[in-house]
Amino acid sequence: MDRENGPRVPEQRAPRTGPEDAERGGVPEGAPGAPEPVSDLRFAVLGPVRAWRDGEQLPSGSPQQRALLAALLLRDGRTATAGELIDGIWGEEPPSQALAALRTYASRLRKVLDPGVLVSDAGGYAIRTHRGALDLDVAQDLAAEAEKLWASGERSEARALINKSLGLWDGEVLASVPGPYAENQRARLEEWRLTLLETRLDMDLEIGNHAEAVSELTALTAAHPLRERLRELLMLALYRSGRQAEALAVYADTRRLLADELGVDPCPELSRLQQRILQADSELARPVEESAPAPATVSRPAQLPATVADFTGRAAFVRELGDQLATAEGSVMAVSALAGIGGVGKTTLAVHVAHAARPHFPDGQLYVDLQGAGARAAAPETVLGAFLRALGAPDSAIPDSLDERAALYRSTLDGRRVLVLLDNARDAAQIRPLLPGTAGCAALVTSRIRMVDLAGAHLVDLDVMSPEEALQLFTKIVGEERVSAEREAALDVVAACGFLPLAIRIAASRLAARRTWTVSVLAAKLADERRRLDELQAGDLAVKATFELGYGQLEPAQARAFRLLGLADGPDISLSAAAAVLDLPPHDAEDLLEALVDTSLLESAAPGRYRYHDLVRLYARACAERDEQPPSEREAALSRLLDFYLSTAAGVYAIERPGDRLVDHLEPPSYEGLTFTDRHEAQDWLYREANCLLACVRQSAGAATLRRAVDLLWASIDIGESGANSKQYESAAAALREAAHETGDEHAEARALMALSNVHAHTGRFDDADRDAELAAGLADRTEDALTLAWAANSRGIVAIYQSRHADGEVHLTHAIDWFRADGNRPSEASALCNLSRIHLAMGRLTSAVSLAERGIAIYDSTGNSFRGANGRYALGMALTESGQHAQGAEALREALAVFRDSRQRLWEGMTLYRLAELELSARRPAQAAALAEQALAVLNGVGGDWRRANVLTVLGRALQGIGQTGRSRVCWSDALATYDDLGSPEADHVRALLHPAAVA
């Protein structure tokens, strides 16, 4: 399959011959996908035939009258004779009074429409509308524009327009309109809709949305089994999703179906795709590639420092700055200012760009190191004296004052084309007198300060290298042979250097000078964070010295903020969290953080969020150990951060689960957190802060903070359940469990074990989940922690459901219900009731299963707990489905699905889709079941564990068998069987029977 040119939108239609309006609008207000109207009369044919004036629907009359309107609308303004219209509406056997009826319909339409819209012409009729009055026109224009955007590389915009075009369809085209003409047009427009749909799916695959496309393509191939293009797209989507066997099975199914139904082989495109999949063609797996950047022009101005021979990467910055400097040939002076952390390569990049820009500045290039990072920055008048001498002014002509020298400097440059490189500037005040004042000249400035107050400057923030660029630089200095032999170790080295060019150059230079060292030796030395900065020095180059220059210029409050914020382990930090670390009001903390951003010692990751470069963080911590007095302030700062997260997470838990008493059993924090009134805002905070919060948990495993850290895990349980951060959550829980065990804190250990048990259960490791819950229960019994006892019983009951230990599960859940009731924790009692419902369901006690789930839902609804109420509806949906009440079961499951999606609970969203797929199978709707199972697989990708994925694959295989894709169904069952066998799950026998029914029989 040739995919180099990407998807193509088919030719739309012949040009309109009637009068047209220059305006292009949409369909009427109220029609699907309608934009704002630009005229008062609109028509729709991509669904029921309708007309609107000023957003109000007009009467369209009888079916035959609508057939006349549709026939005229679809002729693009051309006249249709009376005979053509009669044939189109009534076919070969029109009524005896067909012509009179036609005239009646036309007369009625004239009264409804605007004057001059329906006209009589040469014994026939025509409708004269402006372009865009008909929804079909809008759909065609959107599709045509999408093709242009795709060709120009604007891929996401093109896809959006195709979707918008498809959104104009509102059910069956020309719905309920009689006659052969309508029937032909209905078939034509349905074919075009499918072609557009194929185009949009092709776009999805080109931009990498293959996993999401599988579900839709599975349903479409079931609905249109002989449409080979859909099969081709499904094969490619499966292959790019890592499901090669299924992709090949689709081809086998297609080949068999075409042979049985039509007696033909698959088309050549489909066969070629099969061969490419068999050959694991690497080109097939790649989405659209970006075009390669244009090479920068290289030149050598005379007065600039030499460019480094091993200059690497930075292609985008070289291009951006080169383009900016080139504008100096026009009517303005170009000024570009590069800012960034010390050692990021500002000077190297600026010198390289200046050399490349030589053709634009034939009259010379000036350079000065302004020493802005040091204690004694260069005085502007001194620099101007040197510049004037370089430009040919004798000493006797150079005035004494700064203003006079600046004036003479600008006059001397008038009419010349000169580039001025001002390196290592302190601030904008230092460089303003040094800027040329005329067109044709340009200034290139580097500084650790972002020159926001330099009017008219093009500001560039220089970041560290990409991993690929960093490895290239390291290889250029060390040598290809040594690096290629230890590539992984080399990647570890550049990562330890934080991809900072200065650090990479130092590390590589040390290795190049020591032939007996291997790359692994250097990587091992840099692995120790406490020694890393000391290792990164060679000769007069040292990373620590570079950072020291910036730190030495900070005011005392800024230096304190720099030190303390570096103590937090998270990937970044929010303004609110930083305020807690510093024990300052947010606006005061923001002033300090923004000042650190301006000095490039801190980065602004996003509005209200800040982060350190890895090496700068190590330096900040070294400064905290050396300079922070008293030393206890370090522990106090981290304790405030922990309290901030605990207090805020507890508030999120409370707003998510009204009435749940967990928050009453947590360690009381001494520092206030954020408060929320909106549930979605609270959720946004929790998921946005997940990585930072879990890093704080891991960092708080000391005896003084251990219990609060464990309770923070409990309060942020949604992070562990959502799937997005399950591994980090589990790692943090394991670290706290180990710390609690070592210190003998059984209370904290029990709660850490319950956090682990919860993660194990959600990832399908049920033996581990039951073991940890049992251990937690024993510890909680000794420490009289009633909440942990209740949670452990509930967790063990859940595990028993999955392990088919129904009697055990009933005992555990009955205890949980009693303990939750004793604590007055009604939402948790409801949770245990819903879990007990599933036990009764598995034991065949359908009536009590429904009743228990309904009791749980009643409690949830009475407390306003919509999130956990979804769990109740999940249990109720299963019970109703098993009872044969499919419609009611589906309703309950879909209500649960909406809440899970809204709460971003991927595990439960996926499991609900799986249950709905089971329900559709029970109702003998395999195509719908396959689509739902595919959606479940996509949602559960990386979430829920292998056991749950195997369950979904089993159902998907049954659904695929039901729509005739037997080859693909067997691939799904084979994958599920391999998983069950690996896990030792009893479900293996059931799947084996599906694969080999004859053997079982």
UniProtKB/TrEMBL annotation:
One Pfam family here:
Trans_reg_C
Q: Where is the composition biased (Basic and acidic residues)?
A: 1-26
Q: Which SUPFAM superfamilies match?
A: C-terminal effector domain of the bipartite response regulators, P-loop containing nucleoside triphosphate hydrolases, TPR-like
Q: Enumerate the InterPro entries for this protein.
A: AfsR-DnrI-RedD_regulator, Apaf_helical, BTAD, NB-ARC, OmpR/PhoB-type_DNA-bd, P-loop_NTPase, Sig_transdc_resp-reg_C-effctor, TPR-like_helical_dom_sf
Which residue ranges carry the DNA-binding annotation? 33-129
Q: Does the keyword Cytoplasm apply?
A: no
- Which portions of the sequence form the region Disordered? 1-39
The Low complexity compositionally biased stretches are 29-38
Domain OmpR/PhoB-type: from-to ranges: 33-129
Q: Which family does it belong to?
A: Belongs to the AfsR/DnrI/RedD regulatory family.
Q: Which PANTHER family match?
A: TRANSCRIPTIONAL REGULATOR REDD, TRANSCRIPTIONAL REGULATOR REDD-RELATED
- Output this protein's name: BTAD domain-containing putative transcriptional regulator
- Protein's organism: Streptomyces solicathayae
